[in-house]
Amino acid sequence: MNLTVTSKQKMDGVYIVSPSGRLDTNTYAILEERVDVVLKEEPHTLVFDMETLDYISSMGVRTIAKAQRTMKAYSGRVILLNLQPQIQKVFDIIKALPSQQVFSNMQELDDYLDRMQRQVTG
Fold first, then answer.
1. Which of 36, 46, 50, 108 lies at 20 to 30 Å from 30 by C-alpha?
2. Cβ–Cβ contacts within 10 Å for residue 67, how many?
3. Domains and CATH numbers, the chain
4. What is the pLDDT of residues 13-41, one digit of tens each?
């Protein structure tokens, strides 16, 4: 499955970025490019509307975290909206992880996140 990304300015300083499909190692650059364009506007709020996102890997999470770091540099904020249950599970897992190294490499992390999302989607 491919990834498509749309973005729009909701109001002054507020942008909504909507990824749709599968956000993984093969597609994260599509989201990253769109986010970079939006960040050049220096919004105070960046909303990721995840309503039609089916899957996210560690590279997708990394892209969102990168946007959050950029926004934080000028006191902006990132909001995640409409997370599907399997996407919510990934973010719950990440928040629950201790600060120490848990996975030996990216592939191991992606395999784990994949298994967790499959459990939620059945």
1. 108
2. 21
3. 3-84+95-121 (3.30.750.24)
4. 999 999 999 999 999 999 999 999 999 99
